[in-house]
Design a protein that fits this description.
Radius of gyration: 14 Å
CATH architecture: 2-Layer Sandwich
Oligomer: single chain
Helix content: 25-40%
Strand content: 25-35%
Number of domains: 1
Order of helices and strands: EHHEEHHEE
């Protein structure tokens, strides 16, 4: 579990995700996709969730290998997940590609959020 509270934490998290992706045998393209998705979600934790954490879980199903990343915070939550997933929607002045972009870069994506209690986003990338 890695705490995500500052830009420096994002750098450390990116390095950890890349190292595990390499260890799982990911191609450079797949490494880049999961690291980029992780960066977007970590930035969201800092910008909107007041900080949080990321848990990294290496996966192995027979010959298939992957990485599952769970991002969670105890921030204000997302009142309208469907709206937040739309490209171009932002509450913070960014490009509004964070959640939708992370979903497109992942093999599997899920999001749970409760207003006043925080958000949990889980992504999986298979090799």
């Amino acid at each position: 579990m890695l705490g995500i509270r500052s830009p420096e934490d994002i750098v450390r998290m990116r390095q950890a995700v890349r190292e595990h992706a390499i260890g799982q045998g990911f191609s450079l393209v797949d490494q880049t996709k999961i690291v980029t998705a992780a960066s977007e979600l970590a930035r969201n934790i800092i910008n909107y969730g007041g900080g949080g954490e990321m848990t990294l879980i290496p996966l192995s199903e027979g010959l298939r290998k992957g990485l599952k990343l769970v991002f969670s915070d105890a921030g204000p939550g997302i009142p309208d997940i469907e709206l937040a997933m739309k490209d171009g929607y932002t509450t913070g002045g960014g490009m509004g590609l964070g959640l939708g972009g992370a979903k497109r870069l992942s093999s599997e994506f899920s999001i749970e959020s409760k207003v006043g209690a925080g958000t949990r986003v889980t992504i999986t990338r298979w090799k």
